[in-house]
Specification:
The chain is mostly helical. The protein is 75% helix and 0% strand.
Length: 139
Amino acid sequence: MPNATLSTSTVPARPISGQIITFALVGVVNTATYYGLYLLFLRYLPYLAAHVIAFTLSMIGSFFLNAKFTYRIRPTWRKFLLFPLTNATNFVITTVGVYVIVDMLHVGSKFAPLMASAAAIPVTFVVSRWVMLPKVEAA
């Protein structure tokens, strides 16, 4: 019996195609949440502060949505504490992108986060799978 439990914990919770689709849907919800919070905070804070706070809050929501729907795993403190790694590259790319779009290209701060986030999505998925799913050990 212990081997059966061990072997089921080393396979993905769902096929990768289902994970990609659900990850994308969670990403849409996460982006909408982030953008709504960003616009709200932008009324009271400078754009970079609004970006950082909205990003942090939406990342917390993303962790729980991805755990439940994308990977179908039980959230743990360890995964929760590692989950920011999945967004580190995303954070750097979007933050630099927002800065470049607003301060260098003078496009405007309202749509800058949406434009800056597109390049980070594939990297975020790969790192997210690495953090959230159990590791398969070599036979």
